[in-house]
Amino acid sequence: MSREKGNAIFVTIMVLGLMLHSNLAHGMTYTVGDSRGWDFDVAGWENGKKFHSGDTLVFKYSEGAHNVVVVNKSDYDSCNVPDNATTFSSGNDKVKLRKGPIYFICGIPGHCDAGMKIAINAA
Ligand SMILES: *[C@@H]1O[C@H](CO)[C@@H](O)[C@H](O)[C@H]1NC(C)=O
Ligand SMILES: *[C@@H]1O[C@H](CO)[C@@H](O)[C@H](O)[C@H]1NC(C)=O
Ligand SMILES: [Cu+2]
């Protein structure tokens, strides 16, 4: 193999490695609900997306209008807001995903029932 060809292959492998590395290390960032943000009828936004461990969800909403509560599946299904659950309320809440299922609802009475809930399963 020529020296030039060897160098080209080396550089290609380096670039591929860096791309893979940055993908794994930093993941994707998703704004929940896209341009509408964390709002009523956000349920289903997650469908058809492939989430991975290391991806970040950003919940955007007017501070005070909503919040984000991490719940288990039964509370997700029944829209129950448990005491002392992990709750975010800044209006610009970033959550890094770990592998496995995670469920988010809005804890303001009535909002979860109105569709403020998403279920994610990160690979
Ligand atoms: C879900 O969480 C609620 C409240 O925190 C708890 O009462 C319930 O036992 C939990 N269910 C499961 C299946 O873990
Ligand atoms: C919630 O946390 C407070 C303070 O740590 C504790 O006193 C209370 O018993 C907790 N409530 C439940 C339902 O776990
Ligand atoms: Cu809400």
From TrEMBL:
Keywords of the record: Copper, Metal-binding, Signal
Signal peptide positions on this chain: 1-25
Listed Gene3D superfamilies: Cupredoxins - blue copper proteins
InterPro entries from the UniProt entry: BlueCu_1_BS, Cupredoxin, Phytocyanin-like, Phytocyanin_dom, Plantacyanin
Transmembrane segments: none
Boundaries of every Phytocyanin domain copy: 28-123
Keyword Lyase listed: no
Domain of life of the organism encoding this protein: Eukaryota
PANTHER family linked to this entry: BASIC BLUE PROTEIN (PTHR33021:SF424), BLUE COPPER PROTEIN (PTHR33021)
Identification of the protein by name: Phytocyanin domain-containing protein
UniProt lineage: Eukaryota, Viridiplantae, Streptophyta, Embryophyta, Tracheophyta
